[in-house]
Structures are given as structure tokens and as C-alpha cells.
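Example with several molecule types.
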Amino acid sequence: MTEKPKRRDTAGLIAAELAGTAKPHTAYELLERLRPSGVFAPTTVYRALEKLLASGKIHRIESLNAFVACRGAEGAPHDHGHGELGIGFTVCDRCAAVAEFEDASLQSRIEAAAAAGAFVPRSSIVEIHGLCAACAGEGPAAGRP
Amino acid sequence: MTEKPKRRDTAGLIAAELAGTAKPHTAYELLERLRPSGVFAPTTVYRALEKLLASGKIHRIESLNAFVACRGAEGAPHDHGHGELGIGFTVCDRCAAVAEFEDASLQSRIEAAAAAGAFVPRSSIVEIHGLCAACAGEGPAAGRP
DNA sequence: ATCAATTTGTAACGTTATAACAATTACGAC
DNA sequence: GTCGTAATTGTTATAACGTTACAAATTGAT
Ligand SMILES: [Zn+2]
Ligand SMILES: [Zn+2]
Ligand SMILES: [Zn+2]
Ligand SMILES: [Zn+2]
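Resulting C-alpha cells for the full complex:
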């Protein structure tokens, strides 16, 4: 049986919006979608996003200022905390689809690069831009639409 | 002998501001600094930044919305075009110092991760947050000041 | 019931980035 | 020279992204 929360669960609403799509959504896109549910202020959205980020349920794509649900490497949600090294994303510049990957040897390369500069790493951001498999078949790219 | 440009060389002014420091500057910080030189509008700054990015003279740090001069891996400017795979940055969360590195094996890991998802990479973003050598010695971190 | 702690809401503001269009400068053709 | 054109720069306004400060509501204890 599903519990009906006494308070509105903004984080839950956002998680639901992000689930089921590989397209990132900006905070203001989410705000628009949650307006019918009574969410009217950016603050509310950003607070909920913060919680979801902290719990690892979503990820922020820095180069898009947007957010995606965590899907793990294989489509199944995994249990990394936030900020771990060795995870990354591919971002299609044509259709905006984002895929997540986790790669231990990428992680070790990042740690090695940090070590080479006597740098103590705490988190890393890896975002690969290009064309997804579907879009690569459809002729040359068109910037970042 | 140095050529005196007939037009104001906004890109040159920005390059001069960014040279000689490892601290990233935002577009609006640069605007403030260029105000005495007669630059008053964000547009002007962003246009100049665009050119500098295209020519590889500066890099954009996505996670800070800020810009640093290209210094290459060893402190000497190198000649990568923009968007190449395999370059990355360390970003100190305490003092904001940014260092650039280039790592062929990191590049090959990124290409492999892309290939695993049938993704065609065109550019990559690698930013490692943590503490620089100087700051790591000074006690625990303090968020991202 | 009263209290303090937590969560949510509201309003205003600050920062980052772009769009649309006008004015100026450079430069070759005439 | 001056005309025409392309490239660059300037101006104004606006869009997009994010935070601060504080008020109101909910909760769970005492
Ligand atoms: Zn994830
Ligand atoms: Zn695509
Ligand atoms: Zn560089
Ligand atoms: Zn530091």
C-alpha cells in the first residue's frame, strides 16, 4: 500500500518527472511541470533537487545546468553515493539524451591525474559530448540544439 | 615592437587578465575589470570569450561557470584545439586554483566508455574537485568557498 | 496546550547568458 | 577620395539559472 504523505513531496514529484526519460530537465522546466501540483517558486525546486542529489537519486549535468535520474550504468539504479569518482555521462548534442556510465579504470586514471598534481580528489565530473547511436546514423550533427 | 590595435582588443584584454593566475574568473568579474577600459556590456565580454575559447587560448570550467587561461599540462601553453578529448582540470574547493592536465590514457578510457555505449564523442569535460597540495596541508576542507 | 525543530512557502534579489538591432571601423573596388 | 560591403563593436533589453531572507505551517515532544 502506498503512503499518502501529509506534506507535498516535491522531491518525489521531481523524481517522477525525471524517471522514465534520458532527457535532462532544467530546474525551471521542472518548476513548470510542477506548477499544477502547487509548486510556484524556484526555491522549492532547488531544495528538492538538493536532497535528491545528496541521496544519489539524480545527477546534475554541469554542462547543461540540468538534471537526470540516476540510472546506473546498465539502466538499473545503482547505489553510488554522490560525488564518487569514476562515473560519467554521455550527452548527445543532437537529441540531448544522457547516458550514465561507471568505469573503474576511468576512475583510476582520474586518481592518477590528480596524484600527479599532488591534488586530493573528492569528486569528479566527466561529461562526454557527441552523438548518440541513434543520432550518429542520421547525418552530421547540428551544434547543440 | 608591439602593434597598437586601432580597435580595442577586448579578447586581448581578457587574455591579459587571465594570464598569470590559476584562479578562474567569471564573465562578469572580467566585465568589472574591463570597465575602466571602456567595456560596459556582457555581450562584449562573451563575444571575446567565445573567440578565445575557439582559439584554445582559454578554457571554460563548467562547474564554476568561469574561465581560465590555457596553460597546458606543464605550465607552458600547448597547442590543443578546443574540445579535444583527454584534457582535464583540477579545481581546488578551498582556494579555487585550477590546474590543467592532459593524459593520453584518460583520453583512451573516455573513448572506450563512449564506444561501450555506441556513442560518438566530439568533446569531453573532466573536472576534478578536491584540495590542491597547498590547501590539503591546511586542515580539512570548507565546502566550496 | 506549548514549545522547539523541521519543512515548506513566498518574495525579492543576484548571477549567468543571449537576442535583436544600431553604430562604427576596416578595406577593397571604383 | 568615396562608395559599398563585411566584420566588429556597442546598446538595450530580456531570458535563464540560482540564492537569500524571512514568514508560515507541520511535526513531535514536554
Ligand atoms: Zn548514477
Ligand atoms: Zn541523440
Ligand atoms: Zn589548455
Ligand atoms: Zn587550494
